[in-house]
Amino acid sequence: LGHARIFTFFSFKHCVLWVIVKLKEKHLVLLRDGRTLIGILRSIDQFANLVLHQTVERIHVGKKFGDIPRGIFLVRGENVVLLGEVDLDKECDQILQRVSIEEILEEQRTEQQAKQESERLKLQAVKERGLSIPKADTLDDF
Amino acid sequence: LFRRFSFDDDCTLEEEEGLVEEEDEIDQFNDDTFGAGAIDNDWQEEHARLAGLDERVRDEVDGAGDASSVDLSLSGSNAHSSAPPQPSSSSRLYPSIDERGGGDLAESLTHLILGSDPAIAGVGAASSDRSLRPLMLSGQTPQPSALAGQSSLLLSYQQQHQVMHRGPAPLSQINSHSIWENSMGFSPVSSGLLTQKEDKTLMSIIKEVGLPNRPPALSREEGRDFSERVPPPRSSSPVIGSPPVRAVPIGTPPKQPMSHVHTQQNNHPSAIQHVRASMPLRYPPPFPERLSPNNLLSIASSPLSHSPFPAGVGPVLSQIQRAQLLNSQVGPFQRGPAPPLLQGGVGGFRPFFGQSGPRVGLHGPPLGHAPIRHNTTHLHPQHRRMLNQRMQNRGLGDHVGGRGVGDRKNRDPYSNLMTQREKEWVARIQMMQLQSTDPYLDDYYYQNYYEKMEKRQERDRDNRKEHTTKLITPQVAKLEHTYRPVQFAGSLGKLTVSSVNNPRKMIDAVVTTRSDDEEKREKQVWNKRRQILYTVEKMYSLLLEVQDFEKKFLQTPEHQRDALLEQHKTHMVQLYNSLREKEWDDRVSDKQCLMIMSVRKGKRLISRLLPFLPQPHAAAVVMGIARNLPALAKKDKHDQVLCWLVEPVTTVIQSMSSTSLTDLLQELQGSEGQLPLVLQNKFGVTLLYLILSEGERMQSSDPNCQLMDDNRWTELVFSVTRELLKVPSSALSSPLFTPPNLVSLFSRYVDRQRLELLQEKLQITSLTR
């Protein structure tokens, strides 16, 4: 509120320059819908639209992850949450365990179901107590 | 029109001319909307070609050896061309034109031309750093640089006429314009200086060259991209937000043969030199006031170049400046009125430039090699140092690795989808946004962070010789770039050229609200909320000013301090006014208070505001809160943030007089039935305890305090105690904290039994927190 531009000069410029310098390296992109894409960043523009090559969508569930090859991605800039370079050395030694696509999708489904279930229970409990969870539009934003 | 130079293999020039007339009307729109590229080659073909080309290029490059040693080897590479040798040219001309010349003639031309001037060499990604010296068309690598040959041809035309006539400047002039300003497809070619005959040959050359795409292979010494991708021609829009312009936008009058391009001697060093359209594409510069990104950026950042930081400007910028210096002699090409800003900028820039001198062969930074020194004026010097260090480290690392990896990189056919220029362009656009007139406003946290760092360093170093550098941020005037539609002199109305890259509003849509009853009600609620938020936010901005007052006060010089003080007082008054009922009534308006406190933001606001209000006002506000506590409690059910107010309220209470304290307690109790409601709310209980505790403190510290002067206090406490005893424990909320002296307070007023009961109750409640 009032001073909204946190670290603009430092981080933004730095990041922009670095990303541009580091084109053609493997990058990890986190999208607004929660997906994680890993690919070679080929092109970027002022809206942070990205062109990713040989992209792989990585799904993480717990300690496991699975990669789905996707090909070429053109991501609209507004949907990008994070973009960062993948350290190829660090990528090799990680605690996460890679599994097959089917397995990871299965895991994801299970996780989703569990989450939905808990949400439902919570809602029910809240209702029973006569409370209500406010809808998003009644909250004023910070 | 540009069509004449379509890269269509099949038409001959003569046929095309006929075609052009017909298709003019039909395809005009198309051309611009979808870009010349869309009608030209099949992208798949092109892609395949490019991929294939890259292979070839790489191979050739590997075999080429040091590119810099190439001088007149163009001829060798251009063996395939079918264009006849240019009669009028000297032996320097290379008759052959590679049919596989790059699809983007304009771009390659620019590259070559830009590369030609040694002072400007190494401008951007696409340009070769082989200087096509004016005298020696030593040039490109022995790559199938069709366009190298091609443009050398054109260049030599130019040179023929210009160099002879006017001196060595032309190339630099051409180069002096912004990289992107290559708007006319064949702009590098001097328009007026070609005779008809040359024109024809030129066109034929161009036509032929415009054929299969063939990126001019460029190679540099280290780290350079070895395959150059030529992007398809884009639709024109020389405004910000679009990459290099190549075609001519809609609305420009059809080309007419012009005998001589008017050239103005431009002795003014500050004018931007733009290249006129070539003969075949002779259009008056339709958008003199529009500036391409780089232009704009150069304007915007040229004042910034005054900074003491060396090499703080990107290569393009310095190229422009350099070129302008060199340009002072001749200006055969000129595009329209020079943007005023650049004048000042460039004029001032010269001395700076004199120091550094034209740097020959300053390349754009190859990947990871030299740090990209874009406009770093806003970076704190420390920070910049750190950045540079970091970059150097990485650069070294990359460089070493790069050498070994270079081969591998070569094999990556997609490695250069973004030309260096494009990268710089994007980076520059983004950095333009970082310019600011008031860094404290725009980048508060960063500034503060570095200030603290500075102070810390100073403290650590104990003021050694090596003094900490101060951050000097230049105040850049914010430029307003409003779009003014194109106007031709003497015409009626304005032309709005719309294209893919600069969409323009075509329809005026008017919004009509439907009156649905439910919708209305909902909207009303929403509107009310919005109104509240709006008020709160306005107050917030005042509050922020007030909060920053102290800091600003310390920074302003003596003579301005009074004014600042006045301003501060006004802010305070305004703030309080928004809480008041009427201007002359010092009481706090209940309605306003309630309204503001009904939103979370408002509560936060009040909690932040209270410390700044003078005592009587603050007390009035607290009174208002106490008075309306039940309503507030109800509204706070969702947010549960009333407790934010505890701290500031505590401070206020502790500075209250006994009468006001009594008043406050009375307000809190209010009418019948208020107290139980108060007790139900955490904040209410806390407030009550605070008041009681304060009263107790007063009494115990000062035996003859006024608290006991009238019976009000005693009575109030009695009724409170009664209530506390009466209320069931479940309805008693636990406070945020229990002041320790409550017991002594109650011991004054109640008998032992009741005291014990109370203790139990309150202790219970405090334990069950």
TrEMBL record, chain A:
<comment type="function">
    <text>Plays a role in the degradation of histone mRNAs, the only eukaryotic mRNAs that are not polyadenylated. Probably also part of an LSm subunits-containing complex involved in the general process of mRNA degradation.</text>
</comment>
<keyword id="KW-0597">Phosphoprotein</keyword>
<dbReference type="InterPro" id="IPR010920">
    <property type="entry name" value="LSM_dom_sf"/>
</dbReference>
<dbReference type="InterPro" id="IPR044642">
    <property type="entry name" value="PTHR15588"/>
</dbReference>
<dbReference type="GO" id="GO:0000290">
    <property type="term" value="P:deadenylation-dependent decapping of nuclear-transcribed mRNA"/>
</dbReference>
<dbReference type="GO" id="GO:0006397">
    <property type="term" value="P:mRNA processing"/>
</dbReference>
<dbReference type="InterPro" id="IPR001163">
    <property type="entry name" value="Sm_dom_euk/arc"/>
</dbReference>
<dbReference type="GO" id="GO:0008380">
    <property type="term" value="P:RNA splicing"/>
</dbReference>
<dbReference type="GO" id="GO:0003729">
    <property type="term" value="F:mRNA binding"/>
</dbReference>
<comment type="similarity">
    <text>Belongs to the snRNP Sm proteins family.</text>
</comment>
<keyword id="KW-0687">Ribonucleoprotein</keyword>
<protein>
    <recommendedName>
        <fullName>U6 snRNA-associated Sm-like protein LSm1</fullName>
    </recommendedName>
</protein>
<dbReference type="GO" id="GO:1990904">
    <property type="term" value="C:ribonucleoprotein complex"/>
</dbReference>
<dbReference type="InterPro" id="IPR034104">
    <property type="entry name" value="Lsm1"/>
</dbReference>
<comment type="subunit">
    <text>Interacts with SLBP; interaction with SLBP occurs when histone mRNA is being rapidly degraded during the S phase. LSm subunits form a heteromer with a donut shape.</text>
</comment>
<keyword id="KW-0507">mRNA processing</keyword>
<keyword id="KW-0963">Cytoplasm</keyword>
<feature type="domain" description="Sm">
    <location>
        <begin position="17"/>
        <end position="85"/>
    </location>
</feature>
<dbReference type="GO" id="GO:1990726">
    <property type="term" value="C:Lsm1-7-Pat1 complex"/>
</dbReference>
<keyword id="KW-0508">mRNA splicing</keyword>
<keyword id="KW-0694">RNA-binding</keyword>
<comment type="function">
    <text>Probably involved with other LSm subunits in the general process of degradation of mRNAs.</text>
</comment>
TrEMBL record, chain B:
<dbReference type="InterPro" id="IPR039900">
    <property type="entry name" value="Pat1-like"/>
</dbReference>
<dbReference type="GO" id="GO:0000932">
    <property type="term" value="C:P-body"/>
</dbReference>
<feature type="compositionally biased region" description="Low complexity">
    <location>
        <begin position="236"/>
        <end position="245"/>
    </location>
</feature>
<comment type="similarity">
    <text>Belongs to the PAT1 family.</text>
</comment>
<keyword id="KW-0539">Nucleus</keyword>
<dbReference type="Pfam" id="PF09770">
    <property type="entry name" value="PAT1"/>
</dbReference>
<dbReference type="GO" id="GO:0000290">
    <property type="term" value="P:deadenylation-dependent decapping of nuclear-transcribed mRNA"/>
</dbReference>
<feature type="region of interest" description="Disordered">
    <location>
        <begin position="60"/>
        <end position="101"/>
    </location>
</feature>
<feature type="compositionally biased region" description="Polar residues">
    <location>
        <begin position="70"/>
        <end position="80"/>
    </location>
</feature>
<dbReference type="GO" id="GO:0016605">
    <property type="term" value="C:PML body"/>
</dbReference>
<dbReference type="GO" id="GO:0003723">
    <property type="term" value="F:RNA binding"/>
</dbReference>
<dbReference type="GO" id="GO:0033962">
    <property type="term" value="P:P-body assembly"/>
</dbReference>
<feature type="compositionally biased region" description="Basic and acidic residues">
    <location>
        <begin position="219"/>
        <end position="228"/>
    </location>
</feature>
<keyword id="KW-0963">Cytoplasm</keyword>
<keyword id="KW-0694">RNA-binding</keyword>
<protein>
    <recommendedName>
        <fullName>Protein PAT1 homolog 1</fullName>
    </recommendedName>
</protein>
<keyword id="KW-0597">Phosphoprotein</keyword>
<feature type="region of interest" description="Disordered">
    <location>
        <begin position="213"/>
        <end position="245"/>
    </location>
</feature>
<feature type="domain" description="mRNA decay factor PAT1">
    <location>
        <begin position="486"/>
        <end position="632"/>
    </location>
</feature>
<dbReference type="GO" id="GO:0016607">
    <property type="term" value="C:nuclear speck"/>
</dbReference>
<dbReference type="InterPro" id="IPR019167">
    <property type="entry name" value="PAT1_dom"/>
</dbReference>
